[in-house]
């Protein structure tokens, strides 16, 4: 993949400051706002049915995250998603815990069936659950049997391309090795550190960043998604390298957002470890 597309993706976010409406997990909502600000976007959170459609109209993109699901926000997600679809705005869906409960699985499936989703981002078990292919998850974590490794990378990439074709959108599977795919293309990303799993919400924060990148780069949605994921993983590498002897996961969380804030376009272009498969 052309590194210039990765660097320009970040530059376009910083130049345009995309306003993103996030209906997201209340466990991580503050971090989502700060991560989006750090990458160069602007967050707004509205989840009341009487407020969300109007807020969606003034934004460039929409994030739907079902991490703390309830009946009230399900209705709001559909209403906001309908408006975003009418306006042609990108929609990023995070099907948190799909496969773990009927409500989560059915809600995620209904959102992707009824709305013009642009990007679905989740772990492999969650993504497979959307097509009825996953046997089980571990709460909001991937089933170990669904792990993406160097040994099964080509096989899994083919599966993710097939899933993208079935779902009709870009599919981003995040884990030890990340995969971003359409029905025709698949890209592996090897940035990131295991410690990113030691704080809650790194995936939720990434949802908002992906939305900002896709809004700012409408003609290169796949490359924008790759740039967002690679940049976030690279920020994790920078953050862990900064840690001192007495630092723990709370310090890492702060360093991670700092690293995203300070990310330069050439740093992303040179540090992104991406491979088109």
What can be said about this structure in brief?
The protein has 277 residues and is α/β, with parallel strands linked by helices.
Question: Could you walk me through the main structural features you see in this protein, from its secondary elements to its overall organization?
Answer:
The protein is an alpha/beta fold. It has a single domain, classed as 3-Layer(aba) Sandwich (UDP-N-acetylmuramoyl-L-alanine:D-glutamate ligase). The chain is built from eleven helices and nine strands. The chain has helices at residues 3-16, 29-39, 52-58, 71-87, 102-114, 124-129, 153-167, 202-216, 221-242, 249-262, 265-271; strands at residues 19-23, 42-44, 61-65, 91-94, 119-122, 170-173, 178-181, 186-189, 274-276. It has a nine-stranded mixed beta sheet, with helices on both faces. α2 (29-39) links the parallel β1 and β2. α2 runs parallel beside α8 and α9 packs across α10 (249-262). The longest helix has 22 residues, at 221-242. The protein is globular, with a radius of gyration of 17 Å. The protein starts with a helix and ends with a strand. The mean pLDDT is 93.
Number of strands: 9
> Secondary-structure element order, as H and E?
HEHEHEHEHEHHEEEHHHHE
Helix content: 40-55%
Number of helical segments with 4 or more residues: 11
CATH superfamily: Ribokinase
Distance between the termini: 10 Å
Q: What are the segments in which pLDDT stays under 50 over at least 5 consecutive residues?
A: none
Shape, principal axes of CA atoms? globular
Secondary-structure content class = alpha/beta
Q: How large a portion of the residues is in β-strands, by DSSP E?
A: 5-15%
Assigned CATH class: Alpha Beta
Strand order of the largest sheet: 2-1-3-4-5-6-7-8-9
CATH arch. level architecture? 3-Layer(aba) Sandwich
